[in-house]
Amino acid sequence: MEKETFTVTFFHPQPTKVKVTKGKDLLSSAIEAGVFINSSCGGDGVCGRCKVIIKKGKYKTEPSGRISPEEREKGVVLACQTIVLSDLEVEVPPTSRLDLGQVSEEDLKLLRLKGIYSSPVDIDKGKDLIKKDLFIHSPLATKLYLELPPPTLSDTVSDLERLYREIRKIKDIPIMQTGLTNIKKLGRLLRESEWKVTVLLGKRNGTVEIVSIEPGDTTDKNYGVAVDIGTTTVSAQLVNLNNREILATKATHNTQASFGSDVITRIIYASEGGGLEKLHHAVIDNINGLISELTRQAQIALTDINGVVCAGNTTMIHLLLRVDPTFIRREPYVSTANFVPVIRAAEAGIKINPRGLLLCVPGVSTYVGGDITAGVLACGLNRKEELSMLIDIGTNGEIVLGNKEWLISCSASAGPAFEGSGVKCGMRATKGAIQRVEIIDKDEVRVFTIGEVRPKGICGSGYIDCLAELFRKGIIDRTGKFKDINSKRVREGSEGKEFILVFKEEYDLPEDIVITETDIENLKRSKGAIYSAGFTLLKKLSLSFKDIKEFFIAGGFGTYLDIDKAITIGLLPDLERERFTFVGNSSLVGAREILLSYQAKKEAESIAKKMTYLELSTEPGYMDEYVSSLFFPHTELERFPSLIK
Amino acid sequence: MEKETFTVTFFHPQPTKVKVTKGKDLLSSAIEAGVFINSSCGGDGVCGRCKVIIKKGKYKTEPSGRISPEEREKGVVLACQTIVLSDLEVEVPPTSRLDLGQVSEEDLKLLRLKGIYSSPVDIDKGKDLIKKDLFIHSPLATKLYLELPPPTLSDTVSDLERLYREIRKIKDIPIMQTGLTNIKKLGRLLRESEWKVTVLLGKRNGTVEIVSIEPGDTTDKNYGVAVDIGTTTVSAQLVNLNNREILATKATHNTQASFGSDVITRIIYASEGGGLEKLHHAVIDNINGLISELTRQAQIALTDINGVVCAGNTTMIHLLLRVDPTFIRREPYVSTANFVPVIRAAEAGIKINPRGLLLCVPGVSTYVGGDITAGVLACGLNRKEELSMLIDIGTNGEIVLGNKEWLISCSASAGPAFEGSGVKCGMRATKGAIQRVEIIDKDEVRVFTIGEVRPKGICGSGYIDCLAELFRKGIIDRTGKFKDINSKRVREGSEGKEFILVFKEEYDLPEDIVITETDIENLKRSKGAIYSAGFTLLKKLSLSFKDIKEFFIAGGFGTYLDIDKAITIGLLPDLERERFTFVGNSSLVGAREILLSYQAKKEAESIAKKMTYLELSTEPGYMDEYVSSLFFPHTELERFPSLIK
Description:
2 copies of one chain form a homodimer. By secondary structure, chain A is α/β, with parallel strands linked by helices. Chain A has 5 domains: 5-96, Beta-grasp domain (Ubiquitin-like (UB roll), Roll); 109-134 and 223-360, Domain of unknown function (DUF4445) (Nucleotidyltransferase, domain 5, 2-Layer Sandwich); 141-215, Ubiquitin-like (UB roll), CATH 3.10.20.880; 384-415 and 524-644, Nucleotidyltransferase, domain 5 (2-Layer Sandwich), CATH 3.30.420; 417-519, no CATH class. In chain A, the strands form 7 sheets. The first copy, chain A, has a 6-stranded mixed beta sheet with strand order 14-13-12-15-17-16, sandwiched between helices. Chain A has a 6-stranded mixed beta sheet with strand order 28-27-18-19-20-29, sandwiched between helices. Chain A has a 5-stranded mixed beta sheet with strand order 2-1-7-3-5. In chain A, strand 21 and strand 22 form a beta hairpin. The termini of chain A are far apart.
């Protein structure tokens, strides 16, 4: 018997209709409709982020503590907990909308995606991490123009061997391969182009492939794209493979967030029927969208893109390739592949030159992916005489320590708080996010937003500031609890005490912007996880933070990260501030270098092979150290001497 | 406006119907209907082999000298010269039918396909060309059973690297590759099979590929097929890749013959719209048919065939791969590829393990293909201290001369006479072909047929005997003309004088079996082309036939080739008969060795690279030598001293 079908109309605010069968949940219906709704828990009804308002129609919903009685009255439900029983009209409030529009050029600057390392202007200023001539220019895909000697009765070598012969006159290539597709069209192509052709050579797993052959000289058209697949943001940069020129950079939200905000939720989703397929298509759509935008902006043909390099954490790379990530979260937490062979981009669904190549930056382990390898490459940890440390603050906080001799990494479950998730008024570091906070006194607060617009929520760097200021001004104690003080900004909320940063009346907001005691607890756990991870890693090697010459701080913060305040809350160790550099998206920089240089690719491989991984969960002492760090700044105050002053 | 369509019914003798548009020619209609009709000239109306009888309906036909007035009265037309103007009923007489049935086991023996080199029994007798342990056993596809150590918290290397690590414990493989298809299923496969898997490793162009991965131990199922793609016959042999055992051998007619009997006609056909496609499908159907027969006979699964090696002349390999052969026949006669990379068999349309490999034996030049390379490998010319010569008698007569130091080849346009084509009563060396002739005197003749059945026509070895006998008995003179003698067997035919070998009344045949003066002229040109090619090649190197220690004679003769008579007519030089060995299908033997041994493959490559090619058409002296050889046995009788006696 066929199930009844109903029409669900989502207003977000444009109406979008979708036909669904009776009993389907609203979150799935929204995804089918292409309406992307926030969701952190992957549909478990826990995160309370997928609130929608039913305007009309019959439904059934599970009761949830996330919905207040006033909200319930207004028809607010959790989309994931609500099933369709008739035609429905559903409003998606702004707070639940996942903004999937392209990030604006301005935002990009803010996001530091074209930051100090990527923009040619900044490179001129000598601010780039990677010097232009550090790696030998030898891109993933190279073009070679050849004028072949036409065959004669005394030189009757076949077309293919003639081509090989000519290429080998110029390049020393022991193993050369090509596919039947090229061979099939070779005879006619060579003759119709009067023996003048351009071959596209691709580097594939220790061999060189003739990727494609074009008539005439097309060597000037050879582009590539570097991609950083973040759990939250996907960033891409278009480069000219001939001369390293950066032509454009774009970013977009990772649509996968709609299926769960963190990696674990997505792995669970992927393990269910059709889930892997959906997550794969989500990120592929993101990448194709970015590439298509980039080519439009640079006015080049999509088919002149001959290579793509993707860096991402291990799960993101699995999902990119449609490889089942199920086993990543089952003990002993093993991925299917950390070193993925170079394949044709089309095999993954990426729309460039149909024969163009896709290289995934090799990862170290399940929890330390190619994004970290690329980051290490970009920061040059592996080339430095003295010890340095890369701290990538994200849902998984990854830490790498080392020098030119050795590299060791670890990964800490920091939670999504610094990415603006799992905290009451948290948001990603985009326009409208409070990224800087000054507390003048317990009643007076100044906030600064990204883009200097009306505040919408708080991002990671805003929370760091906020915590540091609350602590410095004595509003919270060392455990993160509100002191018993009298302030118009401190009140009892639904989740315990909270501090109001912005009153809704100030900017005509739907609600006050607050930081709750629960938020502070979450943030404390995040900062504690990262600090104690770094500490434990060093201790394991009989080292301490002061032995580190340079710290590179990467992560999805805004334009601004106040190192001093990060130290105040105990996220970073208390050392001379000059030792710290905020590097933004080092993964994208590394991916670009790999795209442009085989030497950089080999170096990335050597980084990934050389890097050892310390599993913290089984490391004795880590839990104690973690618990000790659940104070501001730390149980052992003497570790933060500059704060005592 | 749409064209009218008509139904053509072919009786061959079963009725087969096909719908065709008005004006379509009957030969194309027959091919579309799957009715295969003889045709040598590819539809030019020249060969007169595609005679059919119109029983009913309207048609238009071009007048042809190939149709006698009596035939015309009966409704006989050339299919290629006749267009359809209404529904038609067409009878395909036996003489025009291309018998596409499988060659029987008996025929196979006759055809020497399982002859002295291929049958295990014969190998035991020490008769095989290639000793069992000559080449290191190292087949195109190898299976390896692995029991992987399952990952633990202290050994978290990824699934793919775990697999690589385990393989490298057993085999030293510097460059290992695998496709996304395998990676996608790897995680689940390893766990569901409890880390016990069989990997199929394939050798691809200097690297090793993990072709596929199966759960459990399947190492006992690993088969391969060697194929010789002859212009006339396609032969295939099924072997166990683990232990070299030959499981079955089959042959079938090359269906391409229906589109033209020789290589040049097929190249022309391929250059026309859709022609390449049809020729490609014809040979692929043949190969798939053979493989399917072989697997049925050996009772193994088609998908357990993991590798195929094909040897064939350069044009056959182009058509196999659907590579346009057009430029092979345009000056300076260059092929698209002589060294074809190893590809997946499925790419060419061969139905085995979908990821199984196809290797084409490398060729030397446009006119000396992989079949000759394989033949040289099988006969071991390249391993011998002393000089030897391989003479492959076919439409193109290929000759290779050399020893372990050097190899030189040439190719002579011998024409199809020795393959039974272009001669009045010629046929291929199959059942019913006269392969041995004894002329007792001018009136009494004894003929012996393949399979000892009623004679149907004459094959190459029959013609050699016939010529030698006619010459010895003084019935023809040294130029090949009939002497003025009185015999019931010599008469004036439609094409001049002819000699009757078999009167139709003897066996109730539709027509007498004869050899005409035109046939003799054709055969004389064929034998002259081959002899003079060998002579010229030797002369170029200041050598002569007597410097050759061993001659290997290959070609599509029957069970029988009378070396003495081949010398009598001047096809082979007049030397001690012990120097000659008739080797049958040496190409298939070579292909099989390459399938079984990477060392043999490397040796084949070195043969193809080392072998130089002498282009006879531009060689001064060749034409003179050719003209001198257009006598029986030769203008210079002193070259054949044993005949003078």
